[in-house]
Amino acid sequence: MEKQEKLIKELKKLYPKTEPALKHKNAFEMLCAVILSAQCTDARVNLVTPELFKRFGTPQKMAKAKREDIETIIKSTGFYHAKAKSLHESAKKIVADFNCKVPQTMEELLTLQGVARKTANVVLGDCFDVVEGVVVDTHVKRLSFRLGLTKNTDPQKVEQDLMKTFPKKHWYYLSNALIYHGRRVCDARKPNCATCTLSKFCPKNGVKK
Questions:
Q1: pLDDT single digits (tens) 136-155
Q2: Tens of pLDDT along 122-139?
Q3: Mean pLDDT across the chain, nearest whole number?
Q4: Domain 134-201 - what CATH class?
Q5: Which of 1, 7, 17, 194 is the most buried (most CB within 10 A)?
């Protein structure tokens, strides 16, 4: 565990505070934003959500919306037919089964359309201070592999490896910090290993893919 503790210590030097990149005011907005972020940049999602939330910012309004209207607003995020269906169906289930409130357990969140463990972990951690696992997005998956923290590429297997390797108290911070580092330093195509203070933890000096 010595490597893991040193890695967390180094990350905290780099990123003492981490904030969610997706702009939101409540759990429902965060849920919608994370659904939209699939294969889309957070910056693009943040351009789309102000209009979406202005018109359909509650489960009740989203559930009653015409799916075509949702699609028009979110079209630039890609896969908009599937995403609009997920937003619409999730909102209807929240209204019907959860008294218009976003559920606060992993088991219940996973019953919503378009919600897998990554989305559920984000909503639980950022909105309810509940830590059930590690958020594994493209950045976390890439950095975990490069840092030798996992030999897997499947997000669920990567999450299980990280949960076994790091104490639970670090799970929420670890994912946010790795996302920060992935955006700023450890790029998918051209990792900036020369200036990366985490390169000493990489099996091949940060260039393992």
A1: 999 999 999 999 999 999 99
A2: 999 999 999 999 999 999
A3: 94
A4: mainly alpha
A5: 7
Q: In angstroms, rounded to a whole number, what is the distance separating the alpha carbons of residues 148 and 150?
A: 5
Q: Which fold has domain 27-128?
A: Endonuclease III; domain 1 (1.10.340)
Nearest to 171 by CA among 90, 106, 87, 94: 106
> Domain extents for the chain?
27-128, 134-201
Q: In 10 A of CB 150, how many CB atoms? A: 22
Residue 105 backbone dihedrals phi, psi, to 5 degrees: -130, 155
Nearest residue to 32 (alpha-carbon basis) of 8, 9, 55: 55
**What H or E segment, with its residue span, contains residue 17?**
none
Residue that is written with structure tokens 């780099």 in the block: 14
| Dihedral sign, Cα of residue 9, residue 13, residue 18, residue 21 | negative
| Residues forming the active site | 118, 137
Q: H helices of the chain, where? A: 2-14, 27-36, 42-56, 59-64, 67-74, 80-97, 106-109, 117-128, 138-146, 155-165, 171-184
User: What is the rounded average pLDDT of the residues 159-185?
Assistant: 95
Tokens 């037919």 -> residue? 81
CA distance 151 to 137: 16
Number of Cβ within 10 Å of residue 193's Cβ equals 16
pLDDT digits (tens, 9 = 90+) for 62-111: 999 999 999 999 999 999 999 999 999 999 999 999 999 999 999 999 99
